[in-house]
Amino acid sequence: MKILVVGANGQIGKHLVSFIQNHDQLEAKAVIRNEKQESFFKDLGAETAVIDLEGDVESIANAAEDVDAIVFTAGSGPHTGKDKTILVDLDGAVKTIEAAKMAGVNRYIMISSFDTTRQAIQDAPRSFAPYVAAKHYADEWLKGTDLDHTIIHPGALTNDEGTGQIAAAPEVERGEVPREDVASVIVACLEKEETIGKEFQLVKGDQSVQETIDSL
User: Fold this and answer.
1) CA 68, CA 52: separation in Å to the nearest integer?
2) Over 70: is that where the pLDDT of 79 sits?
3) Is 137 a catalytic residue?
4) What is the pLDDT of residues 82-137, one digit of tens each?
5) Proportion of the chain in helix, strand, coil states, percent, rounded to 5
6) Which helix H or strand E contains 40, and what residues bound it?
7) HSE (CB half, 13 Å, CA atoms) of 27?
8) Residue 111 and which of 66, 154, 178, 183 are 20 to 30 A apart at CA?
9) May I ask which residue range the UniProt record assigns to the signal sequence (predicted)?
């Protein structure tokens, strides 16, 4: 199975591409913003596609023509303005969803925010509310399609080494989760068709990734 990883140069994305390239049945195609980011992925033997998520849908669809699944891990980052939040976290996600439909790619995994309910938008600090709103509407757009989707809502992301021990369910107590473990969960979802149509929150826990995903 060939996976288009959108946001591959991000911290989750790099872990994910590494895991995919070490998997017997998966291979990655890394979407990056510019050619300067290629070396990391070439060293892993991964194909790359240089795409601007603020560009047109067709460029994303062209990159997706030879893949079996898309994982959206892209984000505008905490140091950009509300404009980038809209253009990347919302519009970039929606364009990638539309590109999947254009390219005939049915499997789609979205890395969202921990809580993207309408109540979460209302409760969020003013500076964070636009991001929550963007993720809310991107999630809703995906759920309104016929794509075989999975939506993962990770808790507060850390750069701690992954433990392989998580908790995941439609609702869990808010907490942290290493980015490396998020990447492991994505791989487990790609391996397991039963995660299609599932949406769950994800934090550190005391159960293995495989056992947790099997129990969803």
Assistant:
1) 21
2) no
3) no
4) 788 899 999 999 999 999 999 999 999 999 999 999 999 999 999 899 999 999 99
5) 45, 25, 35
6) helix 38-43
7) 10
8) 66
9) none
Distance CA 195, CA 5 (A): 18
SS3 41: helix
Where are any strands of DSSP class E within the chain? 2-6, 27-32, 47-50, 69-72, 107-111, 148-154, 156-158, 165-169, 176-178, 199-204, 207-208
Q: What is the torsional sign of CA 18, 90, 142, 204?
A: positive
At 55, the amino acid letter reads: G
What is the Cα–Cα distance from 195 to 101, expressed in whole angstroms? Answer: 20
Q: Which domains are present in the chain?
A: 2-215 (3.40.50.720)
List 131, 134, 190, 212, catalytic entry: 131
- Which tokens go with 101? 């439909």
Q: Quote the pLDDT of residue 76.
A: 72
Q: Which residues of 184-209 are buried (b: 16+ CB within 10 A; e: fewer)?
A: bbbbbbbeeeebeebbbbbbbbeeeb
Question: Which two three-digit tokens encode residue 58?
Answer: 């067709």
The two three-digit tokens of residue 117, written as one number: 């309910």
Could you read off the pLDDT of 133-184 as tens digits, one per residue?
999 999 999 999 999 999 999 999 999 999 999 999 999 999 999 999 999 9
Show Cβ contacts of residue 191 under 8 Å, excluding neighbours closer than 6 positions.
25
